[in-house]
Amino acid sequence: MVEVKIASSEREQADAYDVRKKVFVEEQGVPLSLEIDEFDDTASHFIVYDEKQPIGAGRIREIGPGIGKVERVCVLKEMRGKHLGNLIMHELENYAKSAEMTKIVLNAQSYAVPFYEKLGYTVTSPEFMDADIPHRAMEKEITS
Q1: Is the pLDDT at 143 greater than 90, yes or no?
Q2: Cβ 20 vs Cβ 74: under 8 Å
Q3: Residues 6+ apart with CB under 8 A from 97
Q4: Domain locations in the chain as residue ranges
Q5: Which end of the chain is more exposed for a tag (fewer CB within 10 A), N or C?
Q6: Chain centroid, CA 96 distance in Å
């Protein structure tokens, strides 16, 4: 059974980091020093489990009044194509609504822009490089 939950223990937090390291550091070549950053201490982390196996992750943090920033959304390579990204985003958006956020912003890797557009996000920037990977800023107004 697949479930998404807020990481509420050191073990769950470590599981989220492990998934992120596999996807961003090992698969995409992002330096670990950029992947694990100063915002990890204050962000709310989400972890996806298949049974007890961590298979996806994401985080959200408030960056201004009513504005949440979604970051580090990822799914292990062997688990992609199963709509787990949708599941993660749904939970992140529900969390944002419960925290009275009215807008979510994110920096999507350019190849993932269509995924976020299907979820109602719109592109708000030209392409830019982050960790040597092309990205586009995106945003979505949310309501409770």
Answers
A1: no
A2: yes
A3: 142, 143, 144
A4: 2-141
A5: N
A6: 13
Q: Where are the beta strands (DSSP E) in the chain?
A: 2-6, 44-50, 53-64, 67-75, 103-109, 122-123, 128-130, 133-141
CATH code assigned to 2-141: 3.40.630.30
Q: Other C-beta atoms within 10 Å of 74: how many?
A: 24
44-50 and 103-109 beta bridge pairing: unpaired
137, two tokens: 């800023």
Take residue 129 and report the two structure tokens written for it.
Answer: 């490089």
pLDDT band at 144 (very low <50, low <70, confident <90, very high): low
Residue 2 in contact with residue 50, Cβ under 8 Å?
Answer: yes
Q: Which residue type sits at 63?
A: I
What proportions of the chain, in percent to the nearest 5, are helix, strand and coil? 35, 40, 25
Nearest Cα residue to 93 out of 56, 47, 144? 144
